Amino acid sequence: MGPLFWIILCIFGALLAALIVYGILCLIEPHRHELTHITLSCGRMTKGDKFLLSNGKEVFRALPAPGKGDQGHDLRIFFFSDLHIETCFISSGKILRHIEEEHERSPLDAVIFGGDIITWPKYKDKGFSYLKEISDLCRKLSIPFLAVTGNHDIELDDKETEERCGFELIEGRYKILKNPSGREFAIAGVNDSGREDREWYEMPECPADLPLIFLAHDPDSILHTGIRLPDIMLSGHTHGGQLKLPFGIRISPRHKNELPSAGILAGTFIYENTLFFISRGLGCGYLPIRFGSVPEVSVIEIRIPSDSGN
Ligand SMILES: [Fe+2]
């Protein structure tokens, strides 16, 4: 055999080994998770990388403004999204522990779930039990537990979901959250219309004089809020890209959406005067694999000075 044969064999072997290592890493990552601490401080964050949307609008990565230090917070929220119970390897016990510890450190004003309990409806019982454990703890600690559903939850019955998960769905309506000093905030949610025949729901009408937080499973909802933009939006859906391939190759169908198409997949961003956060979520969509996007739950400290507004 000539040297060319051995060169080709070596290249093929190296590629195969790289593929095997990559495959193993993809199976490991869904079992890890991070508790991230996020700050959304209106009017006090600076613009980082720019992302251009197809309609010409600009979105910027939101970064802490240098030299501002800890500004304190008005609301402290525990936020998680995209459970996808069939492919979630993070036990409910770990989430309960995070909530207890964080509430003890500094009281939480709300626990919020951003949708996608399941991928397939036949696993709904398992998803409901997981969330019920969290709502039981919230009830014990007197923390409101609010939620919206995601595009995968479209076949679930809202009434049954709400009753069996123990959270309060805020789809198409708003709720008032009061912080320990008595200041009020409106938090409004929207339903998700699923993937086929996509329909966008506008944000429900909320008191104009209150700071406004918008909860939407799909971050593209920020482009369809109606006449008013919120101060803050919390969302999930993208799974942070879930599977990042070398050379920036994208395979997820989520990338068809407007924001992900522009490279907006996870983290904190600025759109006009709105600060928004996209969680990487907990579970996986369809296949139990992730790479470059570790599952995430977050404690979000929100600050909306009374002089800030849209
Ligand atoms: Fe999802």
Strand content: 15-25%
Helix content: 10-25%
Measure the end-to-end span.
73 Å
Strand order of the largest sheet: 2-3-12-13-11-10-9-8
CATH architectural designation: 4-Layer Sandwich
- Give me the secondary-structure category: alpha/beta
Biggest sheet statistics: 8 strands, mixed
The CATH first-level class comes to: Alpha Beta
What does this structure look like?
It is a single chain. The protein has one domain: Purple Acid Phosphatase, chain A, domain 2 (4-Layer Sandwich), CATH 3.60.21. 23% of the residues lie in helices and 24% in strands. The termini are far apart. The model has no long low-confidence stretch (mean pLDDT 92). By secondary structure, the protein is of the alpha/beta class. The strands form two sheets. Strands 2-3-12-13-11-10-9-8 form an eight-stranded mixed beta sheet, with no helix packed on it. Strands 1-14-4-5-6-7 form a six-stranded mixed beta sheet. α2 packs parallel to α3 (124-141). The structure holds fe (ii) ion. The site of fe (ii) ion has 9 residues, from loops.
SSE arrangement:
Blueprint: H1 3-28, E1 34-41, E2 45-52, E3 58-64, E4 75-80, H2 92-105, E5 110-113, H3 124-141, E6 145-147, H4 158-165, E7 168-169, E8 174-178, E9 184-189, E10 212-215, E11 232-235, H5 258-261, E12 267-271, E13 274-278, E14 296-303
Parallel strand pairs: 1-14, 4-5, 5-6, 6-7, 9-10, 10-11, 11-13
Antiparallel strand pairs: 2-3, 3-12, 4-14, 8-9, 12-13
Bound molecules: fe (ii) ion.
